[in-house]
Design brief:
Blueprint lengths: L9 E5 L4 H13 L3 E6 L3 H11 L4 E6 L8 H10 L5 E4 L7 H6 L1 H29 L2 E6 L12 H21 L4 E8 L19 H14 L3 E4 L3 H9 L3 H6 L3
Parallel strand pairs: 1-2, 1-4, 2-3, 4-5, 5-6, 6-7
Helix pairs in contact: 1-7, 3-5, 5-6
Length: 251
């Protein structure tokens, strides 16, 4: 069960090699979390992530999970919940894709959409049902400011995140009053492996800063978290710009 500050004792990470997810896991293990499940494709990177968290004192187990195989989600995640209650599910998997390349190769664009949206819908619903059955828990969904308004430079990724964001908000409304808390996290540009070599956007942040914001959001039982917080105002302005003006912006 969660402690008096709303922090989890047990954590399930969907996307077990995500830098943001691992920064969050490290932060939570330093506070209260004692058991961590890392779900992802079996790989040396997943094993290394598990060892790192074990070195911090957590009991860590891994489970094979593939966002692109929704038919396996029920069984894979069912194994985790069968072992005991999960206080927090962190849905952190996703791919950025290559906009210019993916426009020319539609199947690559479909893969981005299937990973970021379709896979998340499946895993999110399976997790939500399990949390509701146990009567408590939080589902934290890593969205993106890119989903607030699709830009020419990354509209494939942005549209997938827009769908994910809308889904997570609706799921949170559906679960209101059940004891299950859904929190949507909208980071801006995050300095990570995924964005290595890309030109930084204004208000760039780090996995550690996102982890800090997630912890604070859990303590407050927030429904939406922006990282950094100033992006709430920036995106509100951009969202309401006339389309012709927005199209000409260097964003």
């Amino acid at each position: 069960m969660k402690d008096a500050f709303g922090l989890p004792q047990t954590l399930l990470v969907l996307g077990g090699t995500s830098e943001i997810a691992l920064a969050t896991a490290r932060r939570l293990v330093a506070r209260r979390t004692r058991t961590v499940w890392l779900a992802g494709r079996p790989s040396p990177a997943l094993d290394a992530a598990a060892e790192q968290l074990r070195g911090l004192g957590a009991e860590v187990r891994t489970v094979a999970f593939d966002a692109l195989d929704p038919e396996s989600h029920e069984a894979a995640l069912g194994k985790v919940f069968a072992e005991g209650d999960i206080d927090l599910v962190l849905l952190a998997f996703g791919v950025l894709g290559d906009q210019a390349h993916d426009e020319r190769e539609p199947l690559n664009a479909v893969r981005v959409a299937q990973t970021n949206y379709t896979g998340a819908v499946s895993a999110g619903l399976v997790s939500a049902r399990a949390l509701q059955a146990q009567g408590h828990g939080s589902l934290v969904v890593l969205s993106s400011v890119a989903g607030e308004r699709a830009r020419r430079a990354n509209f494939i990724y942005g549209s997938s995140k827009a769908g994910l964001d809308a889904f997570a908000q609706g799921l949170g409304d559906a679960l209101h009053g059940t004891g299950v808390h859904v929190m949507v996290v909208r980071p801006g540009f995050v300095r990570s492996r995924m964005t290595a070599g890309m030109e930084e956007a204004p208000l760039a942040t780090t996995p550690e800063a996102v982890a800090t914001a997630i912890e604070l959001g859990l303590r407050r039982r927030s429904e939406t978290v922006w990282v950094p917080g100033a992006l709430r105002v920036v995106m509100s302005a951009l969202r309401h710009l006339p389309r012709g003006v927005f199209r000409r912006l260097p964003v």
